[in-house]
Design brief:
Organism: Propionigenium maris DSM 9537
Oligomer: single chain
Subcellular location: Cell membrane
GO cellular component, one term: plasma membrane
Shape: globular
Strand content: under 5%
Distance between the termini: 37 Å
Number of domains: 1
Number of helices: 22
Keywords: Antiport, Cell membrane, Membrane, Transmembrane, Transmembrane helix, Transport
Protein name: Sodium:proton antiporter
Structural class: mainly alpha
Order of helices and strands: EEHHHHHHHHHHHHHHHHHHHHHH
């Protein structure tokens, strides 16, 4: 509730968020018990959010027009609109690039030049690059997993290790990609640039990846090197991914970068005879449509978050958390724990980030933690959880390609990248080596970086 301009903490203000999470989680558990495939993805997340919104209108004080105005202002928040627009452009880029053969060429390029005797480590690298380039861990798994299963059978490498390598690479890219929905959500909720999150996270993700590759080289050696195969690729079709990655890291406006990437992919597709103008337009629209769920989820969650904040729900959480927080480092641990546990509950790392974004931003301001570091933590700990849970989309799709030959319990102990990322993520809080980038990179903000 409000008293003047000050928001008074109220546990009641949190109920709509709990309704949203409860319905989303409850439906997933229900379908899981029924044995339905992709159980946690049967109920669309925007519908669950809408139930939370209805409960907010019923529970909160004020007339209907006041509540509706708060909701619409939340939906129309500039960060929310920017985030949704980037989702659409990222979806269009991914769809057009895939349709013109970019994903296939990228996978085949890696398989051509990575020695076959290093197959497990090679699959980690290929999945990591595809996921980083396309912004989707699920897309990387869909592209690489069928090849991985085939190579496991031919090489004698244990299938669980091969699948764990693909999963680790996919989550590496999901966290680091400039155009992934997790990066878009974490940076927009904290008000920082996507390239800044990338620069912060490489200090955590790269060491974890290097150690994982070393482990895969040792424990993922094939008993019999499979016969070399010829893989068809076109280097030109890989260029749009490099174009987007390099220009985004160079600091060019993300709208310009993604729009340029879309038209570059379209031009390459037209040159090689895959696209007409109509084909190109349809793929752009397909990309937009692919982001419909996350677009609506972000828009509706923005409105719900505004209502929950005005009713004192966010302040109530902050009061409870701050009793256990002693300073910047424990604040960061709290942020990591919140997004990790939320992802376990909702089985969607983007949803977990969107839910916790406002809370993380408040903690960032209260304890003077740099927003770029907070965005990095949101990405890291949500991707750790998403890459470990046996009921997440990534794991379910991965196991689907294995045809029932492997169980989640066989893969989970071998998910070395996620485990190392968790350890290094915590270490980075107490030994802030990533702050070297933050201090060198200018930030126009209202608070200073916390001390080392």
């Amino acid at each position: 509730m409000n008293k003047g301009n000050k928001i008074e903490a109220s546990g009641k203000g949190l109920i709509p968020f709990l309704v949203f999470i409860g319905i989303y989680l409850g439906s997933g558990l229900f379908f899981q018990l029924k044995g339905v495939e992709m159980a946690f993805y049967q109920l669309p997340a925007p519908v669950a959010v809408f139930c939370g919104i209805i409960s907010a209108f019923l529970l909160f004080k004020g007339n209907i027009n006041e509540k509706f105005e708060t909701f619409v202002k939340g939906c129309g928040n500039s960060d929310i609109i920017i985030m949704c627009t980037i989702y659409l452009l990222a979806g269009a880029f991914a769809a057009v690039s895939k349709a013109m053969g970019g994903v296939d060429s990228t996978a085949n390029l890696g398989l051509t030049y990575i020695p076959i005797q290093y197959i497990a480590a090679g699959l980690f690298v290929i999945a990591g690059f595809i996921s980083t380039a396309t912004g989707t861990s699920v897309g990387a798994i869909v592209a690489v997993a069928p090849i991985a299963v085939d190579l496991a059978g031919k090489s004698g490498v244990a299938l669980p290790i091969i699948l764990a390598a693909v999963m680790g690479g996919a989550m590496f890219g999901d966290d680091l990609s400039i155009i992934s929905d997790t990066t878009i959500a974490s940076t927009r909720t904290q008000g920082c640039e996507m390239r800044d999150k990338f620069k912060v996270n490489i200090f955590v993700a790269f060491p974890a990846a290097f150690i994982t590759i070393a482990l895969l080289l040792v424990f993922g050696k094939p008993e019999v090197a499979p016969a070399a195969a010829e893989y068809s690729y076109n280097l030109v079709k890989v260029m749009p991914y490099l174009f987007v990655l390099v220009l985004a890291l160079a600091g060019l406006n993300v709208f310009v970068v993604l729009t340029g990437g879309i038209f570059l992919s379209g031009a390459i597709g037209a040159y090689y005879g895959d696209f007409t103008v109509i084909n190109f337009a349809r793929e752009v629209y397909n990309g937009f449509a692919n982001m419909n769920e996350i677009f609506l989820l972000s828009l509706l969650t923005g409105g719900l978050a505004a209502m929950v904040t005005k009713a004192g729900g966010v302040e109530w959480i902050l009061e409870k958390i701050q009793r256990r927080i002693k300073g910047p480092r424990s604040a960061q641990m709290g942020i990591g724990a919140l997004v990790f546990l939320t992802d376990i509950a909702v089985a969607n790392n983007t949803v977990a980030i969107i839910i916790n974004g406002p809370i993380a931003k408040k903690l960032s301001e209260n304890y003077k933690v740099d927003p770029r570091k907070v965005a990095g933590l949101l990405g890291i700990f949500s991707c750790i959880a998403q890459g470990l849970i046996p009921y997440g989309a990534q794991m379910l799709i991965l196991l689907g390609f294995a045809g029932g030959a492997v169980t989640p319990m066989e893969i989970m102990p071998l998910l070395w990248y996620q485990q190392l990322l968790a350890v290094l993520g915590i270490v980075s809080i107490y030994l802030p080596f990533s702050e070297i980038v933050i201090k060198k990179s200018p930030w126009v903000g209202k608070y200073e970086v916390e001390g080392a």
